[in-house]
């Protein structure tokens, strides 16, 4: 065995696993399993299987997840840059599958960076409903925002705030909540040896403290009848069954929805509960048995713990409880200006339907950090939001993007976003992305942003070019080179001319912008996203 596992870890696992311990230890002689998950926001599972550059072997607990062979480098293919798949450890695909997200859900992913599970949730939502993705650590939220953008997610808000503050802003707001908790990462040892040192320096009890706080805030944000999934990539029962048992003792309106144990999932470790947490009732212990474990000696994956919990009550039906963000449209009566949706009028127009509950009602204290927006800081600011004329943006929509986009128009300085929620709902939170980034108004022109391109389908834009993934042209584009493209290769719809912004696709799937003129395609692929030689 190449890995030197800490002896306290080995001793603990021996007690926990009893006769299964030897098999568990043998699993460390195997290389870790690698997986990819098809991004069904951009391509159907069936179409991906047809064009996949890899031999795919289905992952039993995730319909769109596949094992790929050892030695493959899935991050080095143009399809990765076109967001056709996410590289994800196979066991990590389980929690979202068990959360049961459906289009129209209002979902919170509370510990979301770098975004594996958020991109999975977004694929389940299919652009309908709301995804709020949060992470406490600022640097990690950058990767989270980038991944959501790369995967063409339109209806996500990225926050960098504490669970307590988010709970103040969104009491009983979400139909589904995922807590993929920070943990001691025992399931990561085989994949990432640096986790061994991390484990030796910290204790499961430190994590249990953090997890308890996160859960405490999360329960306040779930609607009656809603579903909460708690997951970790560690084996330690203190952070898994222990956490769930405590929650059930404290919140009798929460119940475990038992996971089917006839397949890859093993039952929760209730014997450990009986030995170490005597105050936990037998009824709660029985419920905890319904949680699920993926063990590395039983399945092809690094291991995970998952608990599915439901809060008692009748879940308000989506169409009665939530407004869909309105379509963005050009209001010609307002002189070609965009009809900026404030959300307020919408609510009063649709009296009695209510959206996410307004935190200011019944919370007269207000307060908070007063709308720090990283989106503004990172992407530049300028004039006060409302002084900006959106005309260049509306002209772009009308002329180049004739379809209907949904969302509340939110501006920060000269940056324009479409948000799945009205701006005032985010006022007191630290917002990294208030929604789908449209672009920037600069010198009275609209400069479309990269995330606008990655989330568009080829047929939604008036001018497109499709580059072949295999003839080197796509990689040259991804490296930032200018390409020579004769006009006949452009696909131009209607009466539009060839000159202007072009949606650059790879085998038909959007990857970014280019600007075409006189046979040359100027490259607009952002510097920070480019294909590098290593
Ligand atoms: C297991 S990782 C999440 C992985 C992520 N769900 C994914 O699938 O890509 C746990 C995350 O929790 C974040 N975190 C730690 N403490 C937190 C807290 N109190 N509130 C929210 N996030 C926290 C960490 O920064 C880390 O990114």
Could you describe the 3D structure shown?
By secondary structure, the protein is of the alpha+beta class. It has 3 domains: 30-310, Rossmann fold, CATH 3.40.50.150; 323-443, no CATH class; 456-529, Nuclear Transport Factor 2, Chain: A (Roll). 28% of the residues lie in helices and 23% in strands. Strands 5, 6, 7, 8, 9, 10, 11, 12, 13 and 18 form a 10-stranded mixed β-sheet that branches. The longest helix is centred in the middle third of the chain and has 18 residues, at 204-221. Residues 329-385 have low confidence and may be disordered. The chain binds S-adenosylmethionine. Residues 92, 110-117, 135-137, 140, 163, 180, 182, 210, 214 line the site of S-adenosylmethionine. S-adenosylmethionine (SAM) binds next to α6 and α10.
List ligands, each type once. S-adenosylmethionine
- Mean pLDDT level: 87
Counting DSSP E segments of at least 2 residues, the number of strands comes to 26
The main β sheet shows up as: 10 strands, mixed
Beta-strand content estimate? 15-25%
Helix content: 25-40%
**What is the multimeric organization of the chains shown?**
single chain
Kindly report the name of the CATH homologous superfamily of the largest domain: Vaccinia Virus protein VP39
In the CATH hierarchy, the architecture of the largest domain is 3-Layer(aba) Sandwich
Rough shape?
Answer: globular
Number of domains: 3
Radius of gyration: 24 Å
Termini gap? 30 Å
- Helix- and strand-based class? alpha+beta
Overall CATH class of the largest domain:
Alpha Beta
DSSP summary: helix tally:
19
Would you identify the regions where 5 or more consecutive residues have pLDDT less than 50? 329-385
CATH topology of the largest domain: Rossmann fold
Family: Belongs to the class I-like SAM-binding methyltransferase superfamily. RsmB/NOP family.
InterPro entries: Methyltr_RsmF_N (IPR031341), MeTrfase_RsmB-F_NOP2_cat (IPR049560), MeTrfase_RsmB-F_NOP2_dom (IPR001678), Nol1_Nop2_Fmu_2 (IPR027391), Nop2p (IPR011023), RCMT (IPR023267), RsmF_methylt_CI (IPR031340), SAM-dependent_MTases_sf (IPR029063)
Keywords: Cytoplasm, Methyltransferase, RNA-binding, S-adenosyl-L-methionine, Transferase
GO biological process, one term: RNA processing
